[in-house]
Amino acid sequence: MPAPLLDEPELDSEAKQATWTLNFGPQHPATHTTLRLILELDGERIVKATPHIGYLHSGFEKLGEHLNYNQYVTIVDRKNYISPPMNEVAWHHAVEKLMGLELTPRCQYIRVIIGELARISDHLLCTGAAALDLGAFTAFLYAFNLREQIYDVYEEMSGYRFHPGYTRVGGLLYDFNDRVLDKIRKVLHSFPQVFGDMSKLLFRNRIFLDRMRGVGYLSKADAIAYSCAGPVARGSGVHYDLRKDAPYLAYPDFDFEVPYCEEGDCWARFMVRMEEMRQSVSIIQQAMAKLPTGPVNLPIAEKLNLPDKATTYNSMEGLIQHFELVMPNRGFETPVEEIYAAVEGPNGELGYYLVADGTEFAWRVRTRPPSFIHFSVFPHIIKNHMLADVVAVLGSLSIIAAELDR
Amino acid sequence: MSTAATPSADVAADAAILSALTASLGDGAFTVARFRDNIRIHVTPERLIEVLTALKTRCGCVYLAELGGADYLKYPGRSGTRFEVHYVLRNLDTSGKIVVKAGVDDPDPTLPSVYSLWPGADWMEREVFDMYGIRFEGHPDLRRILMPDEFTAFPLRKDYPLRGRGERHNFPKLTREES
């Protein structure tokens, strides 16, 4: 249902002075991250919204030119800190495409699993926080409790709960062990209960429905014109998903649906995210069921990825390769070329435009950040809504400040 | 080096975009480079809008997926312009994609804005302006986006040091009384 937009007000000069300005953020409890909005209000109605970004800017793209392809994974983790493994997958996907590498089947499956776990984790926070902002605290707690179990998986697989830094060029930090698989099974086992609890709390909740439906309407044409991607675009009826339409990793092996809605309001985006979580669970189940055996890293002869500890300490080749890769002015050679490669992140197309100059340092690392693009749509879709709708729309766009500012 | 990644089905869709573009403009309007599964075309700033409009209206590339810049100062083996701006376009029906690149040079790097074709380019062009100082003619609101307005340098240029030149320390300090 399209938003019942009010007519553009015909303000005379006296009434124009009656609008007032509200600084919303940068640190506001309802924005979760550091966002600054300057709202021009007529009573409670928003006449104009001006987002100001850059508060958190820390030069991530410049750092990418001074860290090598393996080191930079710690920075990409911090771009979207709600779903770090997906950023890692995206970054090394671009690097491996630049180098022309084909990953081992086991590595591809593991990357699909951690990527989908990150998607579930991101959507849990997004949908849970949307509920929290609109007054439903319990749903948020259910969602966050499951996120804790996903953190347990990260901790078991890499040693870090929040920023795993798990992928490497041509492979992974460690292989999955049995305890990781057990913890993933635990997440999958808990998911239906959490999903059921959240849907019982929210799907027929009159307050929640009224606050979400018809709010923040984005038409299909606008979603395309404004370069929206992911659940924001799919909530407006743009049926496009890189996992299906430009497949990467092992995604062609899995059977899943791409949910989409035609409504284009906050409710549609919320529902798309909820359904995507179920599809992600199904993908992980399929990947676990047919997880290939074999190595996760490319063979040592490729001279690309850091050998694991056993190889480093027990073989001369491993020791030499480890030395070559970690010493400054060594490392592997890259083609003097450039490439654009993207994956379907939780919020949409997460791409990297990489320019390489032959050394192990990238010449240029450009991130295509979904939050940045979606926040530029915000002034357009919030117009003529109420002040209280700001948090609903912000939540439904899932704006992450670190990804905005980089 | 191991074998190249397996070619995916969308490579054919990329080639279809290129042939549609050649059919509509002739191949004098751009030069083509290919790397892995990327098809990259280089155009001059004068013909940029013409090529992008043709891609949007006649080749089905209605979606501007990405826009960004790069500085090639002292890039190995390079003789072209200092800066380049890339546009990644997608055809949402066939999943084809194409990368369009336009080069500009010092001292006054200027490109036509694509805001009229894609309003989504608004912030992306502002970011390129903020980081590289490339101006976009016809952009409705070309201001700094990440850096504060007082900032004078362009931080992603290659001749700008990683740790800055001390601009941050020279900003006027606002006390609570003055604010």
Commentary on this structure:
The complex is a heterodimer of chains A (406) and B (179). By secondary structure, chain A is mainly alpha-helical. Chain A has 17 helices and eight strands. Chain A has helices spanning 13-16, 60-63, 73-76, 84-99, 105-133, 137-158, 178-202, 206-212, 220-225, 230-234, 242-245, 266-289, 309-314, 316-326, 370-382, 389-397, 401-405, and strands at 20-24, 36-42, 45-52, 167-168, 171-172, 338-345, 348-356, 362-368. The relative contact order of chain A is 0.18. By secondary structure, chain B is of the alpha/beta class. Chain B has one domain (7-163): NADH:ubiquinone oxidoreductase Nqo5 subunit (Beta Polymerase, domain 2). Chain B has a five-stranded mixed sheet. Chain B has a two-stranded parallel ribbon with strand order 6-7. Chain B is elongated, with a radius of gyration of 19 Å. The termini of chain B are far apart. At the A-B interface, helix 2, helix 4, strand 6, strand 7 and strand 8 of A face strand 3 and helix 3 of B.
Topology (SSEs and partners):
The complex is a heterodimer of chains A (406) and B (179).
Chain A: H1 13-16, E1 20-24, E2 36-42, E3 45-52, H2 60-63, H3 73-76, H4 84-99, H5 105-133, H6 137-158, E4 167-168, E5 171-172, H7 178-202, H8 206-212, H9 220-225, H10 230-234, H11 242-245, H12 266-289, H13 309-314, H14 316-326, E6 338-345, E7 348-356, E8 362-368, H15 370-382, H16 389-397, H17 401-405
Chain B: H1 10-25, E1 31-35, E2 38-43, H2 45-58, E3 63-71, E4 83-90, E5 97-104, E6 110-112, H3 121-132, E7 135-137
